[in-house]
Design a protein that fits this description.
Blueprint lengths: L1 H16 L6 H11 L9 H8 L1 H11 L1 H4 L2 E5 L5 E5 L1 H22 L2 H9 L2 H21 L14 H16 L5 H11 L4 H27 L5 H28 L6 H19 L5
Antiparallel strand pairs: 1-2
Helix pairs in contact: 1-2, 1-12, 2-8, 3-11, 4-11, 4-12, 6-9, 6-11, 8-10, 8-13, 9-10, 10-11
């Protein structure tokens, strides 16, 4: 029962931090330093912290289904109905796939394994929390008022590739925040805040689904009943919280900028460094 309670806590953390540009990985690693599962298989945590992202992905699919599902039911000339492909949505998926190619290359080349071994630690996370936090503040202070792109339909393939390269940074350095990296990349090339956030949500679908599938395959499907319960609870909580946070973020950035998240990241990075220096975490 205690593990279920812990899964709820981790699900809440994942649901909040996956979409706010403050690094879900950083928060989960920090939380795991104080809250650990007991009596579960070796390697379960490494799988769990990735797979509960499926709940967050499902929230995007539910909230933006009409915007991302290319098959539309339309009335035909004879009065009946038929399925048709929405070309704009197909084009959007093309730009999503293009943006994910750099991250796919990281996996195929084994760079992600190297990154996990050398960068998956509190020190690196603290550095990236602070660095990206500073980047947010600097970009927002120097950003031009008028954005060049104000909808995901206006995005070009060139812009998609550029954003994908920023996502690559997050794939290598934990603590960067996938959403934070892609939003920064989008802001730098003149994309509006709301469009940057929305496109980031869409990019998460193939990126996080692929990462979750790989982790499950690596862990295997031999879950104990307790492990399956913990995973399902964490995923469900992540889904519910993500639904709320996505709506909050989109409403927030219509009237505000991202600087508050930059300041938060810097404060959290400093806290992680303090915890490291005092030996509270290692």
């Amino acid at each position: 029962m205690l593990n279920i309670f812990k899964a709820i806590i981790f699900g809440i953390i994942e649901g909040i931090t996956e979409w706010l540009p403050i690094s879900s990985t950083g928060h989960l690693i920090l939380a795991e330093s104080f809250i650990k599962f007991q009596g579960l298989s070796e390697g379960f945590w490494e799988m769990f912290e990735v797979v509960i992202q499926l709940g967050a992905i499902l929230a995007v699919v539910v909230l933006y289904f009409k915007s991302i599902w290319p098959l539309k039911m339309e009335k035909s000339k004879n009065g009946g109905k038929s399925l048709k492909l929405d070309k704009q949505i197909l084009s959007l998926w093309g730009k999503i796939i293009v943006a994910c190619l750099p991250a796919i290359a990281v996996v195929l080349l084994g760079i992600d394994d190297f990154a996990d071994e050398h960068f998956y630690n509190p020190t690196c996370i603290a550095i990236m929390l602070i660095a990206v936090g500073i980047a947010f503040i600097v970009i927002e202070n120097t950003k031009k008022k008028e954005a060049k792109v104000n909808s995901v339909q206006e995005l070009t393939y060139k812009q998609a590739v550029i954003i994908g390269l920023f996502q690559l940074i997050a794939a290598i350095f934990p603590g960067t925040s996938r959403s934070g990296a892609t939003i920064i990349g989008a802001l730098l090339i003149g994309i509006s805040r709301t469009t940057a956030a929305e496109y980031t949500f869409y990019l998460a679908i193939p990126a996080m689904a692929g990462a979750s599938l790989l982790k499950i395959l690596d862990f295997g499907f031999e879950f104990t009943g307790a492990e399956l319960a913990v995973l399902l609870v964490g995923t469900l909580v992540s889904f519910v919280v993500s639904m709320l946070i996505i709506r909050f973020l989109m409403a927030y950035i219509k009237k505000h900028d991202f600087k508050v998240f930059g300041y938060y990241r810097i404060a959290l990075g400093i806290l992680v460094i303090a915890l490291l220096l005092t030996g509270v975490i290692a």
